[in-house]
Amino acid sequence: MRHLTIKRTVAALAALTLLLLSAAGCVAEGGGNTSAPPATAIPGGTGLLSSFTANSLDGSTVDQSILAGKKLSVINVWATFCGPCIREMPELASVSNDYAGKGVQIVGVVVDTVDGNWRRIEKNVSEAKAIVSETGTPYIHLIPSASMRSVCGVQYVPTTFFVDAEGREIAPAVVGSRSGAEWSELIDGILAGLGE
After folding, report:
1. Pairing status of strand 53-56 against strand 104-110
2. How far is CA 4 from CA 14, 16, 18, 41, 131, in A?
3. pLDDT computed for residue 44 by the predictor
4. DSSP code of 116?
5. Chain centroid to CA 103: how far?
6. Which of 23-32, 43-52, 100-109, 156-165 has the lowest mean pLDDT?
7. Cα(74)–Cα(177) distance, rounded to whole angstroms?
């Protein structure tokens, strides 16, 4: 009897843990979700996206030049299987519109549209296109390439990176979804740290 009670308790705790994880983010490749510290500028950040080439969901070939002229690019790594990723997309669309004239852009990276050898997974590309259409996100979404390995090795989605016009990481990554107000607060803090 006692053995059965322990099993039930463990099962209930496991179910509760999964429920809590699904509320903020999804596991990309095993593990749970963590919370990132508040965003502050990283002096001399790494060249996270200093040199890359990828295709957008609409079929265009893009490279690091999409970052040029922007004070801040918010790189949101998401997946088609991730409910919190999809739920936050309308919030990110609103933020994208609010900051469009302020030198800030959002770029989506759909991490599950390629396999481990960087080959397109057409089913997921189609699903990603449908999700983008349904959520009304006006910003570009990329199908990652091997040259984007630095942002695609995340353990959890969504994970969001912040880079400057040269693709250098300028604030700590954020793990998990956020509301529009939380994104605005983070972006304002990063811009303030940059002297904007």
Report:
1. unpaired
2. 15, 18, 21, 51, 43
3. 52
4. T
5. 19
6. 23-32
7. 13
Residue 103 has φ and ψ, to the nearest 5°, of 75, 20
Is 8 inside any structural domain? no
Average per-residue pLDDT in the chain? 83
CATH assignment at residue 187: 3.40.30.10
Q: To 10 degrees, the CA torsion angle through 137, 139, 108, 135?
A: 0
The answer to whether 112 and 121 are in contact (CB under 8 A) is yes
- pLDDT, tens digit (0-9, with 9 covering 90-100), for 49-60: 989 999 999 999
Has residue 53 been placed in a domain?
yes
Q: Where are the beta strands (DSSP E) in the chain?
A: 26-27, 53-56, 61-63, 72-78, 104-110, 141-143, 156-157, 159-163, 169-175
Range of the domain at 175: 25-193
pLDDT at 153: 86
**Cα dihedral value 170, 171, 173, 175, nearest 10:** -150
- Domain total in the chain: 1
User: Which of 10-14, 55-59, 104-108 shows the lowest per-residue confidence on average (mean pLDDT)?
Assistant: 10-14
Distance separating alpha carbons of residues 18 and 81, to the nearest angstrom: 15
| Helices 83-99, 180-193: inter-axial angle, 10-degree rounding | 50
108 neighbors 137 (Cβ within 8 angstroms): yes
